[in-house]
């Protein structure tokens, strides 16, 4: 509430993974009070939140260049790394995130040293009008660039994906990459968990009922994480 909504305003929807801190009763109630729709990715499907996952990868790559060998000083550099990321033009939108949010490039010590950035003598009305026009144009181009990037990613994904359909009542094997201490990954069965398709949400996601002991658990899975159980008799 303090670090996101009161700084950037409310949003219509929030997309998150299945992390317990994001599914907690406090978070769900906060979204309900504020009128925010919560969207969740399916299990073991980080591609749903691809934008933030790529950002995390870039953040870790840059942090690896500046932290010490003991890696305990990462919290000192994370704000500097985030600032550098926000001030760098994004490959998808064509602008730096800082510019898209504020309508100007950030000023740093190099600008003061070389003294090549000067404030123009403009009154408040003209400044607001110019900034609004500049932001509107930048947002329009950013949306177009994002759409082109999304179309390109979808085209690349469709070339290698093999679509599969499941019917209600089908017995399926569910992908579970959990690793166990003392067991080698090379011998592990990642599709050892079985379940039953209860409902089809769309062409790519299904509600699967998993049996755990004496109780049943319903989870949403992407079609890529399911395999049809086959019997050879």
Write the layout of secondary structure elements.
Layout: H1 5-8, E1 13-16, H2 25-34, E2 37-40, H3 50-66, H4 74-86, H5 97-102, H6 109-114, H7 124-160, E3 171-174, E4 193-200, E5 205-212, E6 215-222, E7 226-228
Parallel strand pairs: 1-2
Antiparallel strand pairs: 3-4, 3-7, 4-5, 5-6
Could you walk me through the main structural features you see in this protein, from its secondary elements to its overall organization?
The chain is of the alpha+beta class. Among the domains are: 92-161, no CATH class; 171-228, SH3 type barrels, CATH 2.30.30. The protein is 40% helix and 17% strand. It is built from seven helices and seven strands, in the order αβαβαααααβββββ. It has helices at residues 5-8, 25-34, 50-66, 74-86, 97-102, 109-114, 124-160, and strands at 13-16, 37-40, 171-174, 193-200, 205-212, 215-222, 226-228. The strands form two sheets. Strands 6-5-4-3-7 form a five-stranded antiparallel β-sheet, with no helix packed on it. The chain has a two-stranded parallel ribbon with strand order 1-2. Helix 3 packs across helix 4. The longest helix is centred in the middle third of the chain and has 37 residues, at 124-160. The protein starts with a helix and ends in a 5-residue tail after the last strand. The mean pLDDT is 86.
């Amino acid at each position: 509430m303090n670090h996101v909504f009161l700084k950037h305003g409310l949003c219509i929807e929030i997309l998150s993974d299945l992390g317990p801190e994001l599914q907690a009763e406090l978070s769900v109630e906060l979204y309900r009070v504020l009128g925010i729709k919560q969207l969740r990715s399916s299990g073991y499907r980080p591609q749903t939140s691809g934008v933030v996952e790529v950002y995390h990868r870039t953040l870790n790559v840059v942090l690896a260049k500046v932290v010490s060998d003991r890696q305990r000083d990462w919290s000192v550099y994370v704000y500097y790394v985030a600032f550098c990321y926000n001030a760098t033009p994004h490959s998808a939108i064509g602008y730096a995130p800082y510019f898209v949010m504020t309508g100007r490039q950030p000023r740093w010590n190099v600008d003061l040293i070389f003294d090549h950035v000067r404030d123009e003598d403009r009154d408040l009305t003209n400044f607001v009008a110019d900034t609004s026009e500049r932001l509107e144009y930048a947002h329009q181009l950013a949306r177009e660039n994002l759409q082109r990037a999304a179309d390109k990613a979808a085209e690349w994904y469709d070339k290698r994906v093999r679509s599969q359909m499941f019917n209600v009542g089908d017995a399926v094997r569910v992908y579970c990459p959990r690793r166990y201490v003392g067991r080698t990954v090379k011998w592990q069965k990642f599709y050892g968990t079985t379940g039953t398709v209860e409902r089809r949400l769309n062409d790519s996601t299904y509600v699967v009922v998993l049996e755990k002991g004496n109780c049943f658990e319903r989870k949403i899975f992407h079609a890529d994480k399911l395999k049809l159980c086959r019997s050879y008799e």
